[in-house]
Design goal:
The chain contains five helices and nine strands. By secondary structure, the chain is of the alpha+beta class.
């Protein structure tokens, strides 16, 4: 999968909270709390699961201390990150701008990977088209416009 597609998929999860992450070999598994999109699949759903495949680097860089690189996945998850925006970097990284609820003013989560898979709570894989439809349904619905 191209970095552009990975960026497009992750962009759909703006305002989501990164709840869990674990690195196993070259797979970065994660859980996102994104109830506003998940409940469009099933009213009882709150989460999406994903895996960055071919992941050979991941770290957090605070905005207010750029030399403080946090690469321990447990420490990164403990920061309670909220996804803001996503960019594709020239050096092969996906840069996710995040707010931090635990410390720092926010920062960038940088991930170097080859592929991304996203699943709903029932572990049904969701492709770019599926996620785009969900995102458009939420962001452009009359309920969202009124709220």
């Amino acid at each position: 999968m191209t970095l552009g597609k990975i960026k497009d998929i992750m962009t759909m999860f703006q305002e989501s909270i990164l709840e869990e992450m674990s690195l196993s070999e070259s797979r970065l598994n994660f859980k996102l709390e994104c109830s506003f999109l998940a409940k469009l699949i099933n009213p009882d759903y709150k989460y999406f699961y994903g895996v960055f495949k071919g992941c050979n680097d991941v770290f957090f860089q605070p905005w207010d201390d750029e030399f403080n690189i946090i690469s321990d996945i447990r420490e990164v998850v403990a920061l309670d990150l909220e996804l803001l925006n996503v960019e594709r970097e020239e050096d092969g990284y996906i840069k996710i701008y995040v707010n931090c609820k635990q410390c720092f003013n926010g920062g960038n989560l940088l991930i170097k990977c080859e592929d991304l898979k996203i699943f709903d709570e029932d572990f049904q894989e969701m492709g770019l088209i599926d996620l785009t439809e969900l995102s458009e349904k939420y962001w452009y619905s009359s309920d969202k416009a009124e709220g």
